[in-house]
Design the sequence.
């Protein structure tokens, strides 16, 4: 689940779609109840980053590298709902 969230951050960082479009696309196209970026805000961006760092360390595969945007947001204290600021503002 977290690798999908990480890929959504890459799409957002590359400017291919807005956060709303990414979330709507996954909800409508994949029948998910919540989009990956809104889910990241609920989980906590710091938690998502920690999971990706463990995956990268344990598997050693670059496909698990955390998105730089995710790292920047965590470093800036934008952790999602718990800080009232993440991908979305609360």
Sequence:
């Amino acid at each position: 689940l977290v690798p999908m969230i990480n890929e959504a951050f890459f799409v957002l960082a590359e400017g291919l779609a807005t956060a709303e479009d990414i979330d709507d696309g996954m909800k409508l196209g994949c029948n998910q109840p919540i989009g990956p970026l809104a889910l990241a805000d609920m989980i906590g961006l710091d938690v998502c980053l920690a999971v990706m760092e463990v995956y990268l360390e344990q598997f050693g595969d670059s496909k698990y590298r955390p998105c730089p945007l995710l790292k920047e947001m965590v470093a800036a204290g934008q952790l999602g709902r718990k800080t009232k600021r993440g991908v979305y503002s609360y």
Summary: The chain has five helices and no strands.
